[in-house]
Design a protein that fits this description.
Residues 2-233 form the ABC transporter domain. With 233 residues, this protein is an alpha/beta fold. 38% of the residues lie in helices and 27% in strands. It contains ten helices and ten strands. The model has no long low-confidence stretch (mean pLDDT 92). The structure holds adenosine-5'-triphosphate.
């Protein structure tokens, strides 16, 4: 469904991605793990055109995305939940979710809103609250929910569990599996290597802009290098 070939990204003089190659099959959960600054977020941002790669290709269902605008890419069926609290603080939860569904009909909107509320019941309770007054975890749920509102075929999640309490982390990971059951494909960037390798069909380990290791999630969970570097001994 998604194929990235030999992707290079520079931020000024910083060579952030040095020839990334990865593939995400339809209906799968694929995770990118790696230490801070490895290039995980840059990879996601490149897919949706928020960063322009200097070389390489990103193909989604056979179509080259690097020539398209972010707007066009989202229209192709890709949703992104960005890292951190990237919600509209002065809008309510419901208004934030509406923004994720701007290209949908009213019927599609209500259906998807119900789906998001069933995944994150807290958002239904807080639908009239300004997003800026939510807790960090709740804001993360808004960002995740907003990414789902356009019924994307591919969902990109950037650290959806960052800074969350253990119970909420579990809720987020359950939501990721539910989204896959709904038929979507998931590319997940995570610091929580243990949890993401557990649910991932396939995983890539990034270091300083390169893929240094890849394999099935459960295989990498047993890999000595991965255990040492990312899972603690
Ligand atoms: P983290 O887990 O800490 O979020 P990451 O793997 O997502 O890290 P990126 O955010 O993709 O890493 O960053 C890759 C490299 O590019 C880092 O060295 C970072 O400092 C650099 N970088 C990222 N964004 C910018 C920017 N806007 N301007 C300059 N350098 C940047």
């Amino acid at each position: 469904m998604l194929e990235i070939m030999d992707l290079h990204v520079f931020y000024g003089g910083i060579h952030a991605l040095k020839g990334i190659r990865l593939a995400v099959g339809e209906g799968r959960i694929v995770t990118l793990i790696g230490s801070n600054g490895a290039g995980k977020s840059t990879t996601l941002r490149s897919i949706v055109g928020l960063v322009k790669p200097q070389a390489g290709s990103v193909r989604f269902r056979g179509e080259e995305l690097t020539r398209l605008s972010t707007h066009q890419i989202i229209q192709r069926g890709i949703g992104i939940s960005p890292e951190g609290r990237h919600v509209f603080a002065n809008l309510t939860v419901l208004e934030n979710l509406e923004l994720g569904a701007y290209n949908r009909t009213a019927a599609e909107f209500s259906g998807q809103l119900e789906r998001v509320y069933s995944l994150f019941p807290r958002l239904r309770e807080r639908c009239r609250q300004l997003a800026g007054t939510l807790s960090g975890g709740e804001q993360q749920m808004v960002a995740f929910g907003r990414a789902l509102m356009g019924r994307p075929k591919l969902v990109l999640l950037d650290e959806p569990s960052l800074g969350l309490a253990p119970l909420v982390v579990e809720e987020v990971f359950q939501a990721i599996e539910a989204v896959r059951k709904d038929g979507a494909t998931v590319l997940l960037v995570e610091q929580n290597a243990m949890a993401s390798l557990r649910i991932a069909d396939y995983a890539y380990v990034l270091e300083t802009g390169r893929v240094i290791l890849e394999g099935e999630g459960r295989v990498l969970l047993e890999d000595e290098k991965v255990i040492k570097a990312y899972l603690g001994e």
